[in-house]
Specification:
The protein has helices at 2-8, 17-30, 35-48, 54-58, 62-69, 78-96, 101-106, 126-137, 145-154; strands spanning 114-115, 158-159. By secondary structure, it is an all-alpha fold.
Length: 171
Amino acid sequence: MLAAYHDAEWGLPERDPRALWEKLMLDGFQAGLAWITILRKRDAFRAAFAGFDPETVAGFGEDDVTAMLANAGIVRSRAKIEATIGNARAYLAMRDAGEDFADFVWRFVDGSPVIGDGEKALTRSPASEALSAALKQRGFKFVGPVIVYAWMQACGLVDDHEACCFRRTAA
């Protein structure tokens, strides 16, 4: 499952605002857990969070939180569930203010993937720290610089594929 995720998805530049938001939410749920756990539960997350439609998720209330806390198919963390609902509201506030989420995040890498050295594994960067701070200013939660860096890798804002990997972009 991890190999298929790597080969078909991880590190490919994502420019769809909603898809970027969904992946950021999943990375927030991954905090403290193995990524394989999130991959195995991704379909259940999508079902629980209405396909990660921000407009629907932003309208969730306590009954929805209670239902998700009883849903063994997802990570049952009240803090992470409530953060996702709040993050949907922050996402929509950005949109309503005329700020496209994809344009916003890609600005932190000047619009094109940052190519890593292919050997040194980083867990954060100045760009992830700046983006994390900017997201927090807009009301996002579970978006620390380490989570944001992992998400930047997953969404292709940073290309940290190993030098020998077929997915690595030529520097």
